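Side project, low priority. Logging it here so it doesn't get lost.
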Amino acid sequence: MNENRACVVLPTYNERENVPAIVPVILAASPLVDVLVVDDNSPDGTGRIADDLAAREPRVRVLHRQRKDGLGRAYLAGFAEALAAGYGRIIEMDADFSHDPARLPALLDADADLVLGSRYVRGGGTAHWGLGRRLLSRGGSLYARTILGVPIRDLTGGFKCFRRKVLENLDLATVRSSGYAFQIELTFRALRRGYSVIEVPITFTDRRVGKSKMSRAIVAEALWMVWKLRFSKA
């Protein structure tokens, strides 16, 4: 069993440059952390590179999915795998260095059922973003916070640490959103069920290499999903 360990779920799609760089840095950040790469059949060979890493490092495993099916589905598949392996804590994290692995101990040390790496609390921020993206991100979090009536300042962030009991009780089979909406939905469900949620500051940095996967469809989904969540019973 791995109840005293944490599993970083790392979704990948065309991240061949980033995966061999970030995985060793994650492992070095904490001896309590293992990595599960969830690859959506990347045509650039990311999955094979991850397999090579796993063959050399017992703290790394790879879950291969047949096709690209959205960030939310990738995370849900990774959560199921990590829960089945008995991990006590499960962490969401991007594979492109947007989330600094050096902040992993801060997420692990915080005493809460769900710990959010937050750009919008004191000490947090963003780097190398243009004005448009800063306004979109801040505005999106404010929009969601206002409609849902919750105190969380960074609802759209994807660097977070769950205690296993949270994921076991969020009825993940009914989650249908992805992207920003997925992040909002999981945090809102945790709050609605009475779990403790805190934010720790992080600095979000634009990806080092590769292309951002954000799209208008992802933003649009988040805009309407918050209204669905507000009136849902899940």
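Brief comment: Residues 96 and 175 are 25 Å apart (CA to CA).
Revisit when time allows.
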